[in-house]
């Protein structure tokens, strides 16, 4: 397990976001990225909370932003190597962004991102 405070982990998440290709962000609209310590009921690495772009009907001004949350403690508990941690955060970000675009877990498994 890696010992890393919230601020340092948030910086790592931002660094991994910066490494993602610009094309992944072209359609991301009204989405915030957050880091929380842990999910309240499950041991998740991340979660997308919102309505996938493929399922949206009327969507416009005044909508609350969708959220992509990366869970710090779950990531830290699974890794003892910083590079593996970075890889896992990277994969989690791609996985959750894919949910925004309407890609389900079955397709993510097929693509190797789940």
From TrEMBL:
Domain of life: Bacteria
Listed Pfam families: Zincin_1
CDD domains the UniProt entry points to: MMP_ACEL2062
Positions in coiled-coil regions: none
Protein name per its UniProtKB record: Metallopeptidase family protein
Organism field: Candidatus Agrococcus pullicola
């Amino acid at each position: 397990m890696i010992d890393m405070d919230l601020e340092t982990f948030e910086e790592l998440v931002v660094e991994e976001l910066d490494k993602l290709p610009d094309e992944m962000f072209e359609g991301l609209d009204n989405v915030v990225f957050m880091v929380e310590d842990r999910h309240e009921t499950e041991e998740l690495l991340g979660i997308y909370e919102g309505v996938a772009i493929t399922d949206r009907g009327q969507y416009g001004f005044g909508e609350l932003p969708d959220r992509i949350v990366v869970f710090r403690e779950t990531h830290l508990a699974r890794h003892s190597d910083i590079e593996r941690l970075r890889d896992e955060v990277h994969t989690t970000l791609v996985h959750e962004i894919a949910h925004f675009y309407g890609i389900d877990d079955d397709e993510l498994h097929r693509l190797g991102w789940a």
